[in-house]
Amino acid sequence: MILIPLHGIASRRELPLPFSFVVAGAAIALAISFVVLVFAWRRPRFAAVGGLPLPRLTAVLDHGGVRLAARLLVLAVFGWAALAMMAGQDLLTNPIFGFVFAWVWVGMVPISLLSGQFWRATNPLRTVHLGLCALARVDPDHGLLRLPPRLGTWPAAVGVLCFAWLELIQPDRTTLAVLRVWVLGWFVIMIIGAVLFGRGWIGAADPLEAYASTVAQLSVWRRVGEQIRLVDPLAGLSAWRPPPGGVAVIAALLGSTAYDSFANTTWWIQTVQRSAHPLVWETGGLVMLALIVLCSFAAAAAWTARYGSRGPGAYPRLMAGSVVPIVVGYAIAHYTTLLILEGQRTAINFSDPLGRGWNVFGSAEMGVNAAIFNHPTAIAMIQLLAIVIGHVLGIVVAHEKAIQLLGPARTAAGEPAADSRAIAPQLPMLLVMIGYTCAGLVLLFSP
To answer: Residue 252 and residue 286: Cα distance in Å, rounded?
Structure first.
């Protein structure tokens, strides 16, 4: 196993597979993609979200007391972490580093998959803003200025890239001085923006909420109207239309994860080390990979406009749901071992945020269980499967969405076509997704 410094909180154990495994994974993804494209259904199957209504669960979760308790609990956890950040010791044993980089950022994926829009409902920024509005007796939806509708989540996309820069590039990122500047800057910008524009600013600009909301589109829990339902996640993804800037958020998430692997390749490390301006190279590499994802996906989606009735600019947002499984697959493959290891270490240190020998939650005397790393081949296979399964789900959603938007291609006799008339609109998107998957496999498992 190769130990590679990652995120400044200990290390991530890379588990390279033999190159034959990578080729096999790419071949499987390629074969399934063309099978779906050529032989799959020709009529929409996930046109309606539907799902199983859960009125009792909705009533419980919408109860004012339950909502307040959940918000206060999450706010208390963040307040405890803030205590560690502001008054704790400037050591890696301070739980704030694992809290930010492992619990919050990486943990956002399983939380959102398992609980849907839980983060939006309990976002501590929203809780603080609601409290301030209650004290001032003003409507939290209204601010001093009007939030431009076209702004969408573009600020959040920039925020995702900024967090990735902090996580992957920022010098001394695991020192309290640096982390305090970033966290306090995030908090101040979010709260002042909410005061100026109303709480809609948090949904537009908070990178954590944008990340969580994007991943939650793949959850089986979904609010349809006023009711929570148990739904087919593929139907939810097919129905999702992100706000303006939503595609940029997805590109930033996928591009930053890809850069994390790319930055560990021998060629890139040598290039950066030989440069007189390493930060410029690293920043350029991060931004470039995000732009590659954004431009390639937007171009492939815009190709669909040749066969549809909408303008080219409409299709990237309409097709955005097809990339979410790939984002989730990348995240699972790339960060699961980090979350398991650093998540435990953070839980242990969380009992003693100030480094004074406390054991508030009874976890301080526990040890990190690293037994999972005794099975490197199993971990590598899970990483491989996460990327391939994410790719397959993305292809299924892209195929479904193309049929919904364009309708099935038909022969002169009115029968569904299985030839180039059905394949042509989807081919560029298929090739782009295969490119994402192959690049992810090569970057993840390259030495």
So the answer is: 9
